[in-house]
Protein 1
Amino acid sequence: MGKVKLLRCVSCGREYLPEDVHYTCPHCGDLLGTLDVIYDYESICQELTRESLSSTEDFSIWRYLPILPVEREDYIQPLHTGWTPLSRFARLETELKLKRLWVKDDTRNPTASLKDRASSVAIAKALEQGAEVVTAASSGNAGCSMAAFAACAGIRSYIFVPATAPRAKLAQLIVFGANVLLVKGTYDQAFELCLKASKRWGWYSRNTAYNPYLGEGKKTVALEIAEQLGWKVPDKVFVPVGDGCIISGVWKGFFDLQKLGLIEGLPSLIGVQAEGSAPLVHAFEEGKTLVEPIIPHTMADSISVGNPRDQLKALRAVRDTGGRFISVSDDQIRTAMKLLAKSTGIFAEPAGATALAGLARAIGEGWVDPAEEIVILVTGSGLKDIEALNYKIEEEAILVEPCIEAVERALTR
Ligand SMILES: Cc1ncc(COP(=O)(O)O)c(C=O)c1O
Ligand SMILES: [Zn+2]
């Protein structure tokens, strides 16, 4: 038997052996039948301890291999992922009047988004299953990262993205050699299409929420936060939410650590959505267990999702930890991008700055205590979407002739 003890359906609680089911619960279907990966915690906690980790020299997600679902280490790709910085920035803390604000900078992953954590696990699982082709539907980042890991492993990838995806993300897909399917429709439509294609042609699916092992990759961000904080759990973690997989992964990371006895208690998870793409906020506020799908409208392309695929787990993550879902406007997201860049030096894409926008709103509404220990996730780089701020560079910058007199004239103007 491998490390994974069983896969448990989030809706009906049925349990499966990992070799019996690859993706979702056959009784509950693809959207409702998402599976939790359950380990043999009792034996893992003998092996994975605070002491064992303090002497581990692997500073990547693979330092947590005993609690990751990968059996064959030789399938792990050398593209470095994780162990991203968790830092405090005095200027940002002062600006927000907070005492302890930590920024988890996941722009530092190989393809510049948190999604690399999931893709690095996905490629190892695909290879374990003998896959020759992998596929993913994506608003951009997940596809880019899957394409990169497929390139690294030398297998083919088919990536379905909305034709409106930012051009930098499309360029990334192409340079990694992915077969790119530009879908003339929404991300939700691209997702459905990709699922059909993977079923028809038997491709290994890296589709979010559908493949249970992806959340295991994403949970490493929570494992790192806990370890980087010296095993002290923060009070609140702010997470940008589209499909809800990242926030579910964050919950799972803290859940696993608690099961292993490495931490006590879970932080409150605050899910932040864009106002025009906030079905989880509505479901949360109305006390529902399922969302009412919508047609999303937001400039934050990575969280522009009408029917969140990981909705059950995302709602559980927030309810279980006494957190909440909130929304922010596109303008608040743009303001947060600028605040983050100008006070920390981190350039985030719109979704990547959405957690900060949510934190700013929470502070404004007075439900964050300035003494609390807060973490915000910065999930993706602004270099992937330079149009988002819509800068007119010629107006923002100063055009000069290449001589010092011209510079002097420009500075004194
Ligand atoms: C940069 C970034 N932030 C946040 C998200 C939202 O993650 P999820 O869809 O798992 O909620 C994504 C998803 O694509 C993303 O790429
Ligand atoms: Zn089920």
Protein 2
Amino acid sequence: MAETKTALVTGANKGIGYAIAAGLAAQGYRVAVGARDDERREAAVAELRRGGAEAFGVRLDVSSDQSVAEAVAVLDERLDHLDAVVNNAGVSGPTAAGALQDPLTLDLDVLRADVETNVLGAVRVINTALPLLRRSASPRIVNVSTDMASLARRTGPIMAAYAPSKTMLNAMTVQYARRFAETDPGILVNAVCPGFVATAFTGFSGSRTAVEGAAVAVRFATLPDGGPTGTFVDDGGTIPW
Ligand SMILES: NC(=O)c1ccc[n+]([C@@H]2O[C@H](COP(=O)([O-])OP(=O)(O)OC[C@H]3O[C@@H](n4cnc5c(N)ncnc54)[C@H](OP(=O)(O)O)[C@@H]3O)[C@@H](O)[C@H]2O)c1
């Protein structure tokens, strides 16, 4: 019998992360729901289980070294390998009505907070989980980005903290892809954009459902061997950097 596939999804208690967890569970993955709030996490796990998923919760705040170390220690106890890590947890930071993170008046603490979660959070999780990923036959890493991070496309409102933090996440994705190509060519790492999704993040104003937004992350978390790495994509294909 084939070994059960396993995945960690960060920020999986709601929104796109929850839908990614559900999508991977639907493909037979045993899913670790990484979330920082105990109540929201356990509610999400219960809901996933009601839907037939094999899911369990892991307390995880990606902005904390200690929390990430503790979460991976729990995974290490419960799983013998990790097939996929989806770095979905993300924050935009406060935005003022009519002047969305104006670079001219940017609060540096907002910029710091976005980088801490959206960039350092992903790096923390990847590097800490790497030994578990290396025990998989086909490890996959997905970094949930946004087309607002595209320097070429310049799309969406001006968000001088959020958008550049995701641009850096994209840059880190390329660094990881290059590095893995040297010593871990089986590890595929990609950045994906879910599109404009109706979640708390967008005040539920997005045009896509969380399930639609999650689809590209699920696809890249389950890539076949020899699939793309170091790319930036959405449902429509490659996004220019
Ligand atoms: N919605 C869109 O249109 C859109 C478009 C492009 C990209 N994205 C990206 O998609 C990802 C998911 O966004 P979403 O729309 O699903 O937003 P969401 O509903 O606000 O969900 C964000 C998730 O991230 C979690 N999170 C935030 N900081 C965290 C931390 N330090 N540690 C652990 N978890 C943390 C949140 O947990 P709490 O519940 O505890 O706050 C929540 O589970 C984000 O990376 C976002 O940048 C979204």
